[in-house]
Amino acid sequence: MRKTGTLVALMALLATGCAGDVSPDPVATTRPLVAVEISQTTEAPPTTMQPSEREPAPLVTLGTGESVRLFETFEHANFTNPTAISNQWLPMAPGMRYVYEGFTQEDGEVLPHRLEMTVTDLTKVIDGVNSVVIWDVDYSDDDLVETELAFYAQDDDGAVWRLGEYPEEWEEGVFIEAPSWIAGIQDARAGIAMRDSPRVSSTSYSQGWGPAVEFTDRAYVDSVTSSTCVPVDCYSGVLVATEFNNDEPGAEQLKYYARGIGNVRVGWRGDDSSIEELELVEVVRLSGEEMAQVRTTALMLEERAYILDPDVYGLTLPAVAPG
Predict the structure, then answer these.
(1) Please, are residues 188 and 212 in contact by the beta-carbon 8 Å criterion?
(2) Which range, of 243-247, 253-257, 274-278, averages the lowest pLDDT?
(3) Any idea which of 11-15, 46-50, 128-132 has the lowest mean pLDDT?
(4) Which residues are CB-contacts of 13 (< 8 A; sequence separation ≥ 6)?
(5) Please, which residues have CB within 8 angstroms of residue 55's CB and are 6 or more apart in sequence?
(6) pTM here?
(7) Which domains, from first to last, does the chain contain?
């Protein structure tokens, strides 16, 4: 049995386990932390996980007329040093925090939006491959709307893969749901976050396949010659990736990547009732003390994930701290 016992968490999960009974507190390390005591007991996750099968994905035709594979071929043997993520377009060095600010527009209402993405020094085995744990915190009009653990690994060719996500969604201080997908569980498959040598092409690739939660995001490279300025700096030779899913035809999100930095801007194109624009406003290398706080916070979020999502996250091995 896995005893959480007297678990110190950042958000209280009451004994009923009902979504509406969970109360959020700010979770970014740049904001005050409130410790709330909860008691729960959960089954221990398995000590081993079997990698997902490697059969070719079925072909489908998208609304654009493009014939594609539903998911990418994930070769487990091609990951000999997967947590060293050095892709020039999407580097992920532990201890780096990227802060984005902008706005979202929902049905005509414009709200300030802030996203904080932190590369932790935790690693976690997903579908037989060790991955880097990323911690995201998302605010709309200064209210927490999502906190997430995401998992990435780099293959031997230099491509960065997304292996899954555990997002908690919040609305007006009330926990709504945690629509997680983890490669190797419930038919979910890893997808490509960034190719090793991206080139302009209208041929799209899967960014992950999580049918149980309808995660079907895809992307293609729109250009690699753009220039853009954000509060952090101005960049040339910027890669622009267009992201979309087949369930929202005509709605596209544009992500701008600068060499050696990663994502510096988020924009949109097309017909979408939900619009998001973000700019990179701060890049921070955390101190040892700040990293220790991040590690503690991310591990507490994982403890809560085992409780709130036993059928998916509960089947994963625990994240591992360095040393």
Answers:
(1) yes
(2) 243-247
(3) 11-15
(4) 21, 22, 38, 40, 304, 307, 308
(5) none
(6) 0.85
(7) 2-46+300-315 (no CATH), 68-285 (2.40.360)
